[in-house]
Amino acid sequence: MISHVLTTDATVHDAAVIGQIHDRLDDKGLLPSEHLLDSGYVSAELLLTSPVERGVEVIGPVRPNSTRQAVQAAGYGKTSFSIDWDARQATCPSGANSRYWTEGYDHNGRLAVRIRFATQTCAPCPARDQCTRSTQYGRQLTVRPQDQDVLLERVRAEQATEDWKARYAARAGVEGTIHQAVATGARRTRYTSLAKTHLAHIFIATAINLIRLDAWWSGSPLAPTRTSHLAALDLAA
User: Fold this and answer.
1) How far apart are CA 230 and CA 177, in angstroms?
2) How far apart are CA 202 and CA 117, in angstroms?
3) Taken in order 90, 96, 102, 106, is the CA torsion positive or negative?
4) Which helix (H) or strand (E) holds 126?
5) Which positions ≥6 away from 85 have C-beta within 8 Å?
6) What is the pTM for the complete model shown?
7) How many helices (H) and strands (E) does the chain have?
8) Which end of the chain is flanked by fewer CB atoms within 10 Å, N or C?
9) pLDDT of 137
């Protein structure tokens, strides 16, 4: 059942509205103890603060490490470095220590720590090609603050397990609801203002809830999972 509808401009990022959604659900007494979200909503900050501030455990995949080393599974990725948070220093696989430690924000406005090794340290290193492509600067790492960094690595490991996948499988029901909304015209608005579009979304959500209630009361069976034409050909073979 759809319990809340929020309509925003298309340019608003998913993660920017999750706090507002939780506030409105809390006002209605409908705040869940577990909230299954897709990766567009999940951030390290949300994973940390939501259980403490709202009592909501956020469950959703965090984005994988997208560095060249992680994608190619070759060379020295972030996990190859040891970070001494108290000394504000990192040590590379060859045993060299970083020289620069800068705390600030990334391009998304989130807290980040930039760790850089001196050019003089990396230039003569025989493993340089496995570490960085830069010919002018030493290796640089960008990490989240300690509590967020530790949490991200733990969730990345957990989401690869079968137990986590089984728990997150309930998210399929949410995706089915989204598909039903799209089928009723929610993807494109017929109106020119946000207020009118929001009202249309409320009508769509109400209609979906009525359809589902009718199916529940009448005992209508759930529709089977659709089989694509390609999968059907494979089954026929």
Assistant:
1) 24
2) 54
3) negative
4) none
5) 146
6) 0.74
7) 9, 7
8) C
9) 87
